[in-house]
Design a protein that fits this description.
Length: 202
């Protein structure tokens, strides 16, 4: 695991001033062009991470079950349903089965860092209502939903999300066209994610 040095220092502290937070992004897909996303942070005031707001919410994650017999690792997440915040959505979309949940662990005082090493993705394989909680049974993402090859190498197109940790832009512009010329105008070309040496025909 390759975390930034400041995060490694925080991870190894016995007594820390700021907590580590668990984020969950719940993505429900309906076709390729439409998606509904909920973002929660466990038992904490709302925060903004990578330009997106995460709502303080109560949920619990079970331990991820590992197996030496070749079984797919599974886990579950129980989300508070006292206010029925998600119930209408689940009823409309058949329990959100085949939706995707992304879990990310972040440090409360270092939200601008790259946390891709502390991110896990799961598919929702089953949903059940138990008293005041909604329980999602999660399994490993289906290989059929993964991009192959994983990364596309484009000569003049940056794959990074504008303003994210990988992008690194902290200026006043609110729009990015993901081109090298645009990145250079923002004086951020050192973080450009495209492959400028590739020919345009590739």
């Amino acid at each position: 695991m390759s975390l930034p040095v400041n995060l490694l220092i925080e991870k190894n502290k016995i007594n820390a001033q700021y907590p580590w937070l668990l984020l969950v992004k719940f993505a429900l897909y309906e076709g390729e062009s439409n998606e509904l996303i909920y973002r929660f942070v466990k038992n904490f005031p709302d925060i903004t991470f990578q330009g997106e707001e995460y709502k303080g919410f109560n949920f619990d994650i079970s331990f991820i079950e590992q197996s030496t017999e070749g079984k797919i690792p599974t886990t579950s997440i129980a989300v508070c349903n006292v206010t029925q915040y998600l119930q209408g959505t689940l009823e409309d979309y058949e329990g959100a089965v085949d939706g995707k949940i992304t879990l990310t662990i972040v440090h409360a005082d270092s939200l601008d860092e790259d946390y891709s090493e502390l991110e896990l993705e799961f598919d929702i394989v089953k949903t059940s209502l138990d008293g005041g909680a909604i329980e999602f049974e999660l399994g490993a993402p289906s290989a059929l939903r993964r991009r192959f090859p994983l990364h596309r190498h484009l000569p003049d197109k940056c794959p990074y999300e504008f303003g994210s940790a990988r992008c690194g832009y902290t200026g006043g512009d609110s729009v990015c066209y993901k081109r090298y010329s645009d990145c250079r105008e923002k004086e951020n070309q050192v973080r450009f994610g495209g492959e400028v040496m590739l020919p345009e025909s590739m």
